[in-house]
Specification:
Order of helices and strands: HHHHHHHHHH
GO cellular component, one term: nucleus
CATH class of one domain: Mainly Alpha
Keywords: DNA-binding, Nucleus
CATH topology of one domain: DNA Binding (I), subunit A
CATH superfamily of one domain: High mobility group box domain
Number of strands: 0
GO molecular function: DNA binding
Shape: elongated
Protein name: CSON012768 protein
Largest sheet: none
Pfam families: HMG_box (PF00505)
Distance between the termini: 75 Å
Structural class: mainly alpha
Oligomer: single chain
Number of helices: 10
């Protein structure tokens, strides 16, 4: 029996997530996790916290009052109201907040020097790699959004995911069943199917992939024509530009 990881190899994670969300199971909300800090990703001790700037000190104190007085106000409107209130704050108050910030910043700088001096070479390297991974992840997200904005064709579901989507309609998961257990159960069921039973899903996948390949080639040609070279994974070879012939005499 193939493991679930093998069955889902090359599958768009969004397809699986949508499959689960469509069941109406509230546990799909648990799929999202709080973003970890670089130090947590690298497995090193947390660094000292930066002091709040004068504006954020004001926001920390003033924002709860705005929320209490306007419980139904949207977040963006709250931010705008705080910003307008900050503009009206007298200079003496701003100077006081600035003084508090500078004092705490001096302490912070000393704590950072002490913190960095205690990091081992390996921990520094781990932090560097974690920072690089985060940059690459952000670039990947940006490219994914760019592809979506440019209407890039979506990769079709695998034969197994097509099977899982059909199973969800006739045999949805229970309210207490989580995604991993449900997909594992479907994986076991899929592995027990005969070749004849798998054939409709395999053929549908082959047909969908052929259409996807055709759509992708057309899309890449359009992107090349519009100058969006950065989104093309397999650049199309352009015809070489013919050199202009010289109008002058050629030396023999």
């Amino acid at each position: 029996m193939l493991p679930l990881k093998s069955l889902l190899k090359g599958v768009n994670s969004l397809q699986v997530t949508r499959l689960w969300q469509n069941t109406g199971n509230v546990q799909c909300a648990l799929l999202s996790q709080k973003r970890k800090t670089l130090n947590e990703l690298a497995g090193v001790p947390p660094k000292p916290k930066k002091p709040l700037t004068p504006y954020f000190r004001f926001m920390k104190e003033f924002r709860p009052k705005v929320v209490a007085q306007n419980p139904n106000m949207k977040q963006i409107e709250i931010v705008k109201m705080v910003a307008k209130s900050w503009e009206k704050v007298d200079q003496a108050t701003k100077d006081k907040l600035e003084g508090e910030y500078k004092k705490e910043r001096e302490v912070f700088m000393k704590e950072m020097l002490a913190y960095e001096s205690k990091l081992t070479p390996q921990q520094k390297e781990d932090l560097k790699m974690a920072r690089q991974d985060r940059v690459e992840a952000r670039e990947k997200r940006d490219m994914k959004k760019r592809n979506k904005d440019l209407n890039k064709p979506k990769r079709p579901a695998s034969a197994f995911v097509m099977f899982a989507m059909e199973q969800r309609k006739s045999n949805p998961p229970s309210a207490k069943e989580n995604l991993r257990d449900y997909m594992k159960k479907l994986g076991e069921k899929w592995s027990k199917l005969s070749d004849a039973e798998k054939k409709p899903f395999m053929e549908a996948n082959v047909k969908a992939n052929a259409q996807y390949k055709s759509d992708l080639e057309s899309w890449e040609k359009l992107m090349m024509k519009e100058g969006n070279f950065d989104v093309i994974r397999n650049p199309i070879v352009l015809e070489p530009i013919k050199p202009k012939t010289s109008r002058g005499r050629h030396s023999e």
